[in-house]
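Sequence, structure tokens passed on for absentees:
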Amino acid sequence: MIKELFSRILCCELREANFMLRKLLKIEEKTIELDGCTTDYVVFGRGKTPLIMIPGLGDGLKTVKGTGLLLRFIYRFLAGDFRVYVISRKNELEPGYTTRKMAADLARVMDYLAIETAHVMGVSQGGMIAQWLAVDFPGKIAKLALVITVSRQNETLQTVIAEWIRLAEEECYDEMTIDTLEKSQTENYLKRVRPFYWLIKRLSRLKSKERFIIQAESCRNHDAYSELARIKAPTFVIGGGADRIVGGAEVQQEIADAIIGSSLYIYPDLGHGAYAEARDFGERIYKFFSSQAEEYVQLKAVSTS
């Protein structure tokens, strides 16, 4: 009984500490309702300039709800100058929900939050959605960062997504999580995390099998390549030359070539997890979003060399 009492006290103290820390760091976790559907999002940062981050297919495993502290820590390099919004896909997904429809829904969320124009960063599937947002709603984007993403189908992406859908259908969530890690990270990184695979497997859960599969299907049907020339916002394309999920440098190169005036940087030895492994990733993204015109030209020159 005493042990249970102490356990409850500790849980209450941890919840209180979590609340106080989120308040101190100006982290908000909210859910909005639009047209009968709900959407989870996280907001942090002390700046006034809005910056929207669109997460990847991991959003099919779990929305951003409950991840405010983690996101604030990972993207702390943006928290000083920007008000960062990390916005999930809506909770009620219908079959056939495409990346273009996801972009339209995101535009409606921006309207609800009274965000007229924002910097936008899309990672992986988030980059696919960001492409359509820039094409269909150009006035909503000040600057655009497309990170480890793809604009149209290729054999690498098709093979990987098909395997993940199979694993999800068979409810082999632990295998899918490990496969994602093995395909995303470098060998040096994996050597450090493999001893913890037993724990990662235990924690591998899906919010909804159907939610993941619907989002995965949208990835393997995404094709915005022919529309990329319509993107007018200053754009920074960044990827990994050894990416085994969306494809390597050639995939990022064709995106940059299609978007007039865009800049490109490739980490030649990194893969789909380049944004997590590259020590200078945060610095590059920060400089892009915070630079003035002259500095942007200089960044562009460095990025394309």
Notes: The CA atoms of residues 256 and 262 lie 6 Å apart.
